[in-house]
Write a structure and sequence with these properties.
alpha/beta, Rossmann fold, two-stranded antiparallel ribbon, about 45% helix
Length: about 260
């Protein structure tokens, strides 16, 4: 089967491209980094835990860049560091994120809110600004933000108001950047995962009450895995997704379709 004169699988070839992946020390970020490297990309691995990054760099042929995304100066410095070491990036995946404490909305402090917004919204925006000139000069590229279904629907029993607000903000940021930067052939999209098995959610899957709750609320009779989300990211950063921009792609086993 051919698509525009190329084999379908060739559309996912990332050979020669430099990618920046945040949150790469574990979970989804590490999975994305491995997938991009498997597609031929040279990956700048960004996270706080240098030891894990260096281990992954050895496995993937990438390079480790320790960075605390809550430190604005560190955020501003990381893309120039990647470009100097690996070459100009044409792919950015903002996979880092986190819930700030899990407090009820009425008890979230200004500090909680600020940290949640900085990590989940401000840092992705700043990193997008930092890669923009490289993508523009290369004649195009792709940015993918990793959001959450929490930015689209409330999740009973898991208080996360500032996190949800930040993730919803990623979808707004996505459409605005997609419109502004389309003239440079820069595509900007968001992937919004539902629940999938990871270090953070392991107890939900191993405890009967949690697993029953997941089964009851997920349409598909399968457990979500990191690879389910990674596949969507790989599509969006590769030529297979060259006609897709400004979208929030939900990967949730049907959770939000109910």
């Amino acid at each position: 089967m051919e698509a525009s004169g190329r084999g379908v699988m060739d559309l996912f070839d990332l050979s020669g491209r430099v990618a920046v992946v945040t949150g790469a020390s574990s979970g989804l970020g590490a999975g994305v980094a491995r997938a991009l490297a498997g597609g031929g990309a040279i990956v700048g691995l960004v996270a706080r835990r240098r030891d894990r990054l260096e281990e992954l760099a050895d496995q993937t042929g990438g390079a480790a860049f320790a960075c605390d995304l809550l430190d604005p100066d560190a955020v501003d410095a990381v893309v120039p560091a990647v470009a100097a070491a690996l070459g100009p990036p044409t792919i950015l995946v903002n996979a880092a994120g986190g819930i700030e404490g899990g407090h009820l909305a009425e008890h979230e402090t200004p500090e909680h809110v600020e940290r949640a917004l900085q990590l989940n919204l401000v840092a992705p925006f700043r990193l997008s600004q930092a890669v923009f000139p490289h993508l523009r000069d290369a004649g195009g590229g792709a940015i993918v933000h990793v959001s959450s279904i929490s930015g689209r629907v409330g999740i009973p029993g898991i208080p996360q108001a500032s996190y949800a607000a930040a993730k919803a903000g990623l979808s707004g940021l996505t459409v605005e950047l997609a419109v502004q930067w389309a003239r440079h052939s820069i595509r900007v999209n968001t992937v919004a995962p539902g629940f999938f098995r990871s270090e953070i959610t392991e107890s939900l899957y191993t405890e009967e009450r949690g697993s029953a709750w997941l089964r009851r609320n997920t349409l598909l009779p399968v457990e979500g895995q990191v690879d389910d989300v990674v596949g969507a990211v790989l599509w969006l950063v590769s030529d297979a997704g060259r006609y897709t921009t400004g979208q929030t792609v939900v990967v949730d086993g049907g959770w939000t379709a109910r």
